[in-house]
Amino acid sequence: MAVYFDHRVEAPDSSGAALLISWHPSMCVLAVGSVNASTGGSVDLYLQQGEHVELCHVERGFSPSLLLWHPTKPLLAVGWETGETVLLSHPSGELTPLPNNTHTACITVLEWSSNGSRLVTGDQAGVMAVWRVDARGKLQGSPLIKHDYSKPLTCCIFRPPPPAEDVAMLARAAVSGDESALDMFNWKKSNKGAAFALGSQEGLTFYISTADGSVYSVDEQARSVPLVSVESAIQTMWYSKRRDVLAVVTDSLLLSQFSLGPEGIAQEISKVKLSGRGVQHADIVWTENGLLITASGEQHIRLWDVELDDHYALSLDESLGFEKGELLNCVSFCTSKLLAAGTSRGRVALWHMVTVSDQKGDTKIHWKLQTPAEVEGNISQLQWGSSSHLLAVCSSSCVVILSEHVMCSHYSQQMAAVQLTPTQLSLANFSTNTHITFHTDTHIRAVQVTKDMVAVWNGKYITVYEPSGQTLHSTGSFQCESPALVVHEENIYTVEPNRVQIRTPQGTVKQLLAFSEAEGNPTLLSVCGSYLAVGTDTCHVRVFDLTRREAKAMGVTKNLSELIPDLGALRSVKCNASGSHLSVLIAQVQKNSNVHCENLYLNLRTRCEGELAARCPVSQFWDENEPRLFVCETVPVNSDLLCSFCLSWQEDVLVVTFFVTQEHGLLLQDSQPKPATLLSLLALDTPYYYYICKVPSSTQMVVRRALRDFVGLESCEKQTRDAMLNFSFYLTIGDMDEAFKAIKLIKSEAVWENMARMCVKSRRLDVARVCLGNMGNARAARALREAEKEPEVEAQVAVLATQLSMLEDAERLYKSCGRFDLLNKFYQAAGKWQQAVETAETHDRIHLRTTYYSYAKHLEAMGDKNLALVYFEKSDTHRFEVPRMLMEDNLSLEIYINKMKDKDLYKWWGHYLESQSDMEAALHYYDLAQDYLSQVRVYCYLGNIQKASEIANETGNRAASYHVARQYEGQDEISQSVHFYTRAQAYNNAIRLCKENNLDEQLMNLALLSNPEDMMDTAMYYEEKGTHMDRAVMLYHKAGHVSKALELAFATEQFGALQLIAEDLNENSDPALLARCSDFFIKHAQYQKAVELLVAAKKYHEALQLCLDQSLTITEDLAESLTVPKDSSHLSEAGRKELLEKIADCCMRQGNYHLATKKYTQAGNKIKAMRALLKSGDTEKIVFFAGVSRQKEIYIMAANYLQSLDWRNDPEIMKNIISFYTKGRALDLLAGFYEACAEVEIDDYQNYEKAYGALTEACKCLTKAKVESKLLILTHRLSLVKRFIQARRMHEEDPVEAVRVCESLLDEKDLDPAVRVGDVYGFLVEHYCNHGNFQQAWSKIEELRSTRPNINLSLYVSQTSLEALQNAAGVRLVYRDTNTHAAEDEEEVEEDENINH
Questions:
Q1: Are 224 and 147 spatial neighbours (Cβ–Cβ below 8 Å)?
Q2: Does this model's pTM top 0.70?
Q3: Torsion-angle region of residue 1085: left (phi > 0), alpha (psi -120 to 50) or beta?
Q4: Phi, psi of 847 (to 5 degrees)
Q5: In this predicted model, what pLDDT tens digit does every residue of 1115-1155 receive, in sequence order?
Q6: DSSP annotation string for 131-161
Q7: Are 761 and 771 in contact (CB under 8 A)?
Q8: Where do runs of H (alpha helix) occur along 277-361?
Q9: Where in 81-138 does DSSP place strands (E)?
Q10: DSSP secondary structure letter of residue 1357
Q11: Which residues form the IF140 C-terminal TPR domain (predicted)?
């Protein structure tokens, strides 16, 4: 929590009321513009505590209108209402006026460029000028740009420059070998473009607005172009560099956003009317991330997030000291996320902005309002300074600089002091239970207390006070500018460079504690017990013993920089009460805060990262008297709340207590959240924590909270306190023997109860049993023993907490272990029925109805019957419980039953009315309940059996029908009785009556409807009587006694019945019975049924023989039934295969080749299976079967079959033929196939090259097969083909040789099988025709015709050559075109008889 010191500016006497304030962006210098009605206006500069800078005073006879500081230099631009503009330098007070003829009206626009090299000025008349300012801050001559817009100018902003190159990053990249980075540093490399810009480039384009709502863009070339236009005067503008968007807000609070294109074209993307009063002088502030904040004299300020398109409002809280109806006039926002607003009652409201992330990762902004600072008068203007802790406030009466200061507080020797205001202290003496509120004459920057002294430091002086009754009186004051101050007994400890001063209360220096240059300057002091801890600015620490007359150093100075990596700075240094341990709160570089504990004697260093792995400490304290106890406040890691200023409203603050010893190091003793109503921890003094309150409690700012182990023992004596501390310590280290020794002499029941309560926290049930025994709490001990059956330790501890009345802990434990069933019972036992019901509905639904029922019983006991009705209904027990509850109020019960319209309730009410002999009303409710049995029973009781029969017939209710049947049987009306027994499905009673009364016709139907026992009984009845034997057979069959049915059917020769019975026979039937039935069917020519029965009887050969004898078609189902499973006991494996082959032979004879293949395969005879498959002609299955069989014979059979197909036009078949012959190792057959392929190539396509290749493959096969005779013949054919191929190839180069080779081929005797004679003659004829030797060509044709009279010339000689030959010889050849050589013998060549020579 922070307080604000107010420093009123030391304004000159000539200054009037302040109008304008402006902080320098980087220096602690404030400019104030004021106006005096008699002397005119003035501008003055002040330092951070309000000191006036004498040389910097400017006076004019008129009022200043605008103030604006240079971005970096101590140069202030001042605009006056007459148009004059001057530049004021700090601290020299040098004035540089702008030329007087530039502006003649009130200055309304002043704007510096980002680097301050340009200054834009504008006035009420619409004149705009741009000035150059050099690096020394000197104005350079006349304006660079001057333009008259003829409209009053309202505001101006510069467009941010583009991001410049990061020189440090480029340098690192260049060192690491990045060529592009090296090239950018090389100025002479012209191919890489211009050299990069060092430093940031200054953007000189700016936007300026006029009172008519126009915005103009002005660039470096002095071009001014209209950009956008809105409806009214523009009050403020903002530019989003990330989105290239210009946002403008008008006087009427109309927000418009424009997207700026690369060519300077603006396009409107949104327009929205902001809520709030549109006043001309509303205070509007933009933040860097696009948050628009406005204050317009209302009771709240409004915020609009332009980036997220979200808006909300912040209002004041009267509980923090604000008044009702207080108005907010002005706002200011600083980079440290602090928002300040000035009110009409002289208060400064402060909000801190915090970004909070939820579990889903979404972020939300929270604003936390703080206690206000107060000044005099109505606040008109606020501005944060370059330092976030400085705030300038301009009110109607003065200008005040508020300096933020963390609230001072201190505790020692049962005395606590807390700063309330800059000049007010709250003092509490806990030993005497007194409280004093004390006012000082100066601001309080530090305070230290002991039981006999209060020391206050204001930054320059230390004042010492002593208690005197209910007030304090000053005993001395001395000058001291020490940044650190502590008090011990009668000594005051202060610091100065390289030493610590020990002073008397009057300021006299008694002793100096020197530090070397290497050790640094002392900056941190703290006292605990009689030991002083000192920390320096070079991270050195030292402890001094104060028990003697003079302070004496303990051990050596420790340099923490050598011990702690990434050490940033020391934030706090504390030692324990014995001086044996030192704790240091540090800030690590780019890491979180940590607490380090140093043992000065053993040089033992322990870090608390185990306990604080996900948290950062923000404060630390040692116990005032117990050297082992240490406590610190922690917040989550990465929290932006790590300052004491923010700690006031941080919710997740954990107070962590440790035991620290040389032997065991750091031991976590307790961890508990900071109470929400308390601000921060002040001290630890067993048995209490001391906290500072957020809001004073009972006029005190400090309250005490007992340590966990001392709840109920706050006022115990020192012996008990020491015993409890030892017990807690030994319990923490797990030494139970020593723990019991520490407390065995304690007889107080309260102590044992407190220890039992501590066992709830530590979950030590074994210790709890001992505590309960010493307490004499038998009930709790029994409950704890019974709770041991629960598997969760938390559930057992919750039982203990319940017995100790720690209900909140019990509730939390049940929730933590997920035992919502026990939590439900806990709530019920505690009378928290709403929580019990909610728990059952959300987590314990298995006990939901039970919970409803228990709650209803509770409500009934409490007399709330109406609500009890609701929960009895929810528990679904209302049908019994509600009549019981309302039994004494028949009228209410009847109304409830009629309202519910529940059949069970109607039935119950009918029974009740029947018991009261109200039969008519009972019948009515039985009818509503549809209770037909009760209706029939009542009607029969009333003697109206006819009505009862009608109800039974109409409804078909079995119970009602049975009751009526009994009534009719009693009256000897047998037919009616049988009818209603049948309706009631009481068939045995109906059968009994039919037998007794010889109703044989009805008996059969009743028996068929009844169970098998009744069927058997009826069948025996028919058999004994000797009549209706067919019925007896049927009943035996239906009852499942098939043998008896067959025996009776054979005996009585009932062939139709036998037919029906045989349909139900299967393989599970008696084999002898099956054989007997099959013989019966054979005799009566029912062969198919006989076969099925023989198969069921496992007589497979007889069944197959019957199929053969009677020519029965063997279907696939029949074949499968004839197939004996493997490992069957009825046939051996050889017999099984023989049977399968017989089945397959039968299928072959019947033409069912696929089925035959299947059975041959099952029999293991793949050769026969392949033969059967070949007969089927199913090529796909043949190929597949050959592939899976992998037998030579089958491969050859498949290949032979495939050769019978059209393999010439199907490459897949040809491929399979070659593959199968190869796999079957039938190389001679493969060679024959290659010869056939060669003949096809020659005959069909005259492709001797492919034929040569096929013959070559054939030769290879014959060579491998070693068939010499065929190989010689094939080799000769191959040579002939090769000679013809060579002749055709050499024809282009050597036609004469080609002709000679062909002539020699014609002389071969066995040419034709290898090379077609027609192809050779055709080649020669083509040759002679191409060379014009038609006579020779004709002679070759004559030779061919003489050797092959029926040859078709068109197959060998081209049509062109034949026509040319005919024209040359005058011979007309008649032929028919064909595409195959096979037609040679069928084609005739006719010669035209008319030869024209």
A1: yes
A2: no
A3: left
A4: -110, 20
A5: 666 666 556 566 665 666 666 666 666 666 677 666 666 66
A6: EEB-TTS-B-SS-SEEEE-SS-EEEEEEPPP
A7: no
A8: none
A9: 85-89, 95-97, 107-112, 118-123, 127-132
A10: S
A11: 1228-1345
